[in-house]
From TrEMBL:
One of its GO terms (cellular component) is fungal-type vacuole. It is an enzyme of class 3 (hydrolase). This is aspartyl aminopeptidase. Signal peptide: none annotated. Its cofactor is Zn(2+). It catalyses: Release of an N-terminal aspartate or glutamate from a peptide, with a preference for aspartate. SUPFAM superfamilies: Aminopeptidase/glucanase lid domain, Zn-dependent exopeptidases. InterPro entries: Peptidase_M18, Peptidase_M18_dom2. Its EC number is 3.4.11.21. GO terms for molecular function: metalloaminopeptidase activity; zinc ion binding. Keywords: Aminopeptidase, Hydrolase, Metal-binding, Metalloprotease, Protease, Zinc. It comes from the Eukaryota. Pfam families: Peptidase_M18.
Length: 497
């Protein structure tokens, strides 16, 4: 099939990176938060960042002018660059995002059958537009924990798996049997959102008890084995992908995703068609802007931070969510008197340094924003209709669902003016409820001044969303300017908070 390339000009940064094309690759390689964090890690390692572990002492490791990162649960990551002129108590310039999206996840006991079909029990994660999952070709990906040796002890290994194959389908009911389907599509999420996995007659390995457990009939098992709780053929497929035996698998977390590849679209490749734009968009733009910042020759007095959390779509209350101690604990370990003189060290102390740093710092909470929908324009506030391709959107809400205030807006406007990046403003209509992000959570936990913004998308929370390819570079350049000059502008007194 002939593909037309009609974009007026290629969006490319100073390092000759084609952002839209690289973003599509990133999306296709990141079907789950685990995969997204792995890909962010790989990008950081390529740019000479060093991995840290929370259980280690960082005091002797950290050095000025270098980049580091730490993960939690393999689904959240915080990366940072310590400025060459940084001392404890200086500000943090933070960009925050989240790695998760509304999806269907396989239940702990997923094996179901009906009318000679093999079905998969799934659980709804987040506030998805679940009708968009019907009739899509669905693949599976996730994290697997298995025994390295199936006969000796519990030497456990964790690996990621991506079964890049259309395995499942949630079929709609034919219109002949539901004449009103086009008027209102309603369904039972427990019993009618079940993916079909195959025909029982085609089973290669009949669903049965685990041979290893049968051989040890006197041994107590607190939970049934994976091959008992899930269809054996599915477990065998996961094991084959990992080149292990099915009986070695202790457990897994598998997520459904749209097998159709992410891609550029539109007459001029001005769109990105994909799932998980909310919020891998901000993870991608934050990642590139941070690694760009470590290559700058300019000496910096701040620490530049990228924080990508899990579980935003379900409220952020987890050990790896924004409502955890993940970010505060990392910042506290950086606000240390390591680079002060001995006299200063005795006078200051870590707690006071963190308090000083918090009031000098700034947090850009980046999550996708609502682009105006041309077929539903009446749903939007008349003067606040963000357009795809017209730059990042500053999100404002009087009820503090977003953290933007006037001083923060003035600061970001100053950064955008310097970088020549167009900005848009969004306020939800009084007739609609307003969503929220990690911004209010981080602001209330740390006291750091915060602003909410994001790139505009259509079909937010659908299995297939639409974003703008040109907006990627706009956001990267804005974040780059923020990392370079944001805290310096604050410290100069340009904006009083």
């Amino acid at each position: 099939m002939l593909r037309l390339h009609l974009r007026k000009e290629s969006k490319m940064d100073v390092n000759n990176v084609e952002y839209p094309e690289e973003f599509v690759k990133f999306l296709n390689a990141s079907p789950t938060p685990f995969h997204a964090v792995k890909n962010i890690k790989d990008h950081l390692l390529q740019h000479n960042f060093q991995q840290l572990r929370e259980e280690e002492n960082w005091f002797s490791i950290l050095d000025q002018g270098k980049g580091y990162f730490v993960t939690r649960n393999d689904s959240a990551i915080i990366a940072f660059v310590v400025g060459k002129q940084y001392v404890g108590g200086n500000p943090f310039a933070i960009v925050g995002a989240h790695t998760d999206s509304p999806v269907l996840k396989i239940k702990p006991i997923s094996k179901r059958t009906n009318e000679k079909y093999d079905l998969i029990g799934v659980e709804c994660y987040g506030g998805g537009i679940w009708h968009s999952w019907f009739d899509a070709d669905l693949a599976l990906a996730g994290r697997v924990i298995y025994r390295k040796d199936s006969t000796e002890g519990y030497q456990l290994e964790t690996k990621l798996v991506d079964l890049k194959k259309p395995l499942l389908k949630i079929p709609t009911l034919a219109i002949h049997l539901d004449r009103d389907v086009n008027q209102k599509f309603e369904f039972d999420k427990e019993n009618q959102l079940l993916p079909i996995a195959g025909l029982q007659a085609k089973q290669v390995n009949a669903d049965a008890h685990c041979p290893a457990q049968e051989a040890q009939s006197d041994t107590f098992f607190s939970i049934k084995s994976v091959v008992e709780r899930h269809h054996r053929d599915l477990v065998d497929m996961v094991a084959k992908e990992l080149e292990i035996k099915s009986e070695q698998i202790e457990d897994f977390e598998l997520t459904l995703y749209d097998h159709k590849a992410s891609c550029l679209g539109g007459l001029h490749d001005e769109f990105v068609f994909s799932g998980r734009l909310d919020n891998l968009t901000s993870c991608f733009t934050g990642m590139y802007s941070l690694t760009d910042s470590i290559q700058e020759g300019k000496d910096s007095r701040c620490v530049k931070v990228l924080a990508c959390f899990d579980h935003e779509e379900i409220g952020s209350s987890s050990a790896q969510g924004a409502d955890s101690n993940f970010l505060p604990s990392v910042l506290e370990r950086l606000a240390i008197p390591k680079w002060h003189s001995q006299t200063d060290t005795e006078a200051l102390g870590e707690v006071n340094l963190m308090k000083l740093a918090a009031r000098k710092s700034f947090f850009l909470s980046s999550d996708v924003a609502h682009a105006v929908h041309p077929n539903y324009a009446g749903k939007y506030e008349v003067n606040h209709k963000p357009m795809i391709g017209s730059g990042p959107v500053i999100k404002i809400n009087a009820n503090q669902r977003y953290m933007t205030n006037t001083p923060g807006l003035v600061l970001v406007k100053a950064l955008a003016d310097r970088a020549k990046i167009p900005l848009q403003l969004f306020v939800v209509s009084n007739t609609s409820p307003c969503g929220s992000t990690i911004g209010p959570i981080i602001a209330s936990k740390t006291g750091i001044q915060t602003l909410d913004l994001g790139n505009p998308v259509l079909s937010m929370h659908s299995i297939r969303e639409t974003g703008g390819s040109d907006d990627l570079q706009s956001q990267i350049e804005l974040f780059r300017e923020f990392y370079q000059n944001g805290t310096e502008i604050l410290e100069s007194g340009y904006v009083k908070t």
